[in-house]
Amino acid sequence: MKNDIKQNGQQQLETTQPAANEANADYDPHEHRNVKNPTTNLQTFAHFLKASIGTGVLAMPSAFANAGYVNGLVLTLVIGIIAVHCLHILINSMYELCKRKRVPYLTFSEAMTIGFQEGPPFLKCIVPIATPFVDGFLAFYHFGICCVYVVFVAESIKQIVDEHLTVLDVRIHMCFLLVPLFIIYSIRNLRLLAPFSSAANLLLLVGFGVILYYIFDDLPPISERKAVEDISKLPIFFGTVLFALEAVGVILAIEENMETPKAYLKPLGIMNLGMTIVLSIYVVLGFFGYWKYGDKALGSITLNIPQQEILAQITKILFAITTWISYALQGYVTANIIWNKYLQKRIKDTNKHVLFELLVRAAIVLLTFCCAVAIPDLSLFLSLVGAFCLSILGLIFPALLQICVQYHTGYGPWKIRLTKNLLLVAFGAFGGIIGTYVSIVEIVEAYK
To answer: What pTM was estimated for this model as a whole?
Structure first.
């Protein structure tokens, strides 16, 4: 039966494909986009760096502590290259589907739904749930990032307040953050956030400079550190590095809002240049941070630098400010999905849309606060969110989408692209399952 379906589909495709290809060749989705507040290449580059360099980079020494400096160096580069490749095949596949359907833009979930419709027959059963499934994972992932950011900012403020005023539980500091978080989160478009991202990037450069100063001050012999850690710790490393490197929803959102989207995927385009900078920072901070602090590296390296020194305290404030700005950028995806895709159409009175969107955003801020209060351990939260969500969003879904998009056009000699994508699916599934399991076990152990 399956063979009959596939044969009939291929016969139908043979009669329509040439004409369809000619029509598709004349249609460029990029030229038909109508973006209200498009961002320039420079603004997009600033958003890309800010979206990709968050609290995850500060967790890299802790990640290396779960891998060893040799394993950490090699595996970070490998995971980084795989992550960038998956982003490329995801955006290229979405672009190809836009050409076929002659539409300016498809969201991630819409592209996955159409891909499953046009892909192998056995995947068609997923079509009815594809859109809410992908939207749900995207919204949950960026919601999880926001939870981590609440913890990070609260921890940074706590160290300074503990030193100069009084010792308070980190959860109390989270309460003080509710109003500032809602203020930044009430900014509803990326163009208005661009100046904040640019300022945050400058603060990050200063902060990284200070952290490297502390790291290189009196480095111990590297022989005191492990080149290769026990394999049982690698799942935590995998989840943390994935969390640090991937920001799928924001990366797609900033590409959607570009004035010149063709500049995004060029060989020397925004994504490749941005990820080269990001990966270099991650490797340097992870390698030398682990060299300096070893197994004592905490969930954020800012928690390792001296608490009493004024320079260190200023650095913690800088990172707290940049993370506060990043909260709005990462949370943009969650609010965009929940409000624009599912709730806005239910409110008939358009005059009340702004009010209701702000109420939705306030609810998201409150929920991230509640989750952060429940699990205030930064490193475990990082690993859980990274392993569970990003193995699916950043590895499995892009590979599946390309398999579906190329189903009728072919996978190249010896089906090499099919083999490659199946390996990506297997890698994402294995890493995600093991990483999620280990992270949950660690959280349960930590809070017994």
So the answer is: 0.79
